[in-house]
Design a protein that fits this description.
Elements: H1 2-16, H2 27-38, H3 45-59, H4 64-80, H5 84-100, H6 104-120, H7 129-143, H8 147-163, H9 171-183, H10 187-203, H11 208-222, H12 229-246, H13 249-265, H14 269-286, H15 289-305, H16 309-325, H17 329-345, H18 349-472, H19 476-504, H20 511-528, E1 532-536, H21 548-568, E2 573-581, E3 584-591, H22 607-616, E4 620-625, E5 631-638
Parallel strand pairs: 1-2
Antiparallel strand pairs: 2-3, 3-5, 4-5
Amino acid sequence: MRALFFGCIGSFVVAFSLSLSTAMGQAAQQLDSLANRLSGRVYDSAYVDTQNRYSWQLLQHSGFKRADSVFRETERLANRIDYPAGLHQMYYNRALSLYYQDQSAKALAHVQKARALEQAYPNRIPVQHRPMLLSLTGVLYFANHAYAQSLHYYLAAIKLAEQRHITYRITPAYLGVGNVLKVMNKPDQALSYYQKALDVSRLEPEPRMRVLAENHMGDALSESARPDFPKALIHYLNALPVAERYGVRGPLSDVLTNIGRVHLVLGHYQQALRFLKRSEVICRKDSLSDQLGAVYWIAGQAYQALRHYPLAEKNLLNALQIARQIGDADETRKRMQTLAGFYQKSGRYELAYRYEHQTALLNDSLFNVQAARHTQELTTKYETAQKESQLKLLRAESAQARLRTSAILIGAILLMLLAGAVTAYLLNRARLRRLEEAQRLRQQIARDLHDEVGSTLSSISLLSGHTDKLLSENRPEMAQRMVQKIYTDARQILESIDEIIWTINPGNDSLQRIMQRLREYAQPLMESKNIRFTFDTDQLPESLPIPMDVRRNLYMIGKEAINNLVKYADATEATVRFEKQTNQLVVRIEDNGKGFDTEAVSIRNGQQSMKRRAEEMDGQLIITSRAGHGTALQLTVGLASTL
């Protein structure tokens, strides 16, 4: 049914053009509101946008003359203030107005002007408007039966929308492809595009897109080779409340007409007439001639089934008259054939013959048109296959791009998780290392306090008790000596604690501080024994860091060796030398004293303690001495163990 089909196209364009309105409401209220805003006369881009919305509302009520006046004013103002986006919308509205007035060729001229603006001002025309203009171009070519061009623009709209990820008002482009495929007798493929349109419409913020998609889905199901009228009726009824709620009069009329058509096929004649009468009111008010012809034709068949023959004849004749007025030869032929059958059944054979004869003549004239159209359809099928291949390739590329993006994202997330895990592991290991070092430090301090302070404190305690006893026995001289011993031991304890504190102080973690402390310790002792003392550092890097455990052991070995030298060597010269040999630190302590027999080592001279400390540093301690030839002590520590 050609009138119904173009009724679907008309409703498609009406709902499609709603992108120029921010809110629908009732039509009269919308017009009044926009007119009031225009009365403010502030000539800026907002004023141009309001003019475009106002002109669009006028089009919905067939106010073409008033709309033309607004178009001229909008074009003049948009050019004056250099506002390409407003001018683009005006050209779109003007093309739509001409389409409503069956002037598709003139409408295409304004579409071309809008496309020229897109090329001249690519960054000043909203990108979401471009698929909409492409779809309108497809509608205009479809109205002129240029199906190949129509399909080209529909597919271009879909391609652009998918490239730019535009989901706003892309539904009409899918519907347009479905319409072309339906004309090409590809109902299954058309149905798949209608289903895509329905899926997309559910994601769009504009509910009116749902009206279009549901309506076209109903058309596809009811006009297929194996029509499913009950299922088609469900889709039409789904579209009806949305169209009623949002006041979309063109699509509402189309939906009402389609519901009436399906009820007619299902034998629900009274219900069919109820919906058709509602559609007739809208068509008369908004001058929807093509749609009104379809309403009359369906209503005539319903009245004929109910045997209301005068009303049936009246409606069928009205439908034929409208088809002739709008120049739709195909619908004219169908409606004449319906009238011929009507007159034949009612026994009016003369009229039946007249319309049958006119139908035959029209069939002959339509043959050449149909042949040309068939050739065009073959061309369109070929171009459709090419366009669909390009579209599939684009979708495959988009899917691959999304897959690559997802893979990169997943890889980045995994890398971040791995980095986080490694960081957590390293931080935890560092924390455990610090805890272990702290534990070793506590154990070292406890051991040092026990070794160096514990026994001395016990000695002080015993001496204090003995002093009390001596005083009670009135032996002050002996008591004085005990007090002197207590004083000496207490001083030794202070020195030991001072050494412990010094070794754990992080400020003393350099080789310079160790050498300085050993020099300060040795110098007064050497002077007290008149020993000529030399302290040589061999230009070592004084800032070389020394860990705490190495620092303490190094200092204690040096202190013990110097102390033994002063006490037992009877030397006149002594040397302490720090030097670097490859990756080793070498400490030499030498004197020219009397020496001793290294085979007869005494526990008291601390050699065992010094060797133990050297082993703790992974170092090596060598003591060489011979009676009458002095003593030499060499401590070698790997520099790697000091870092």
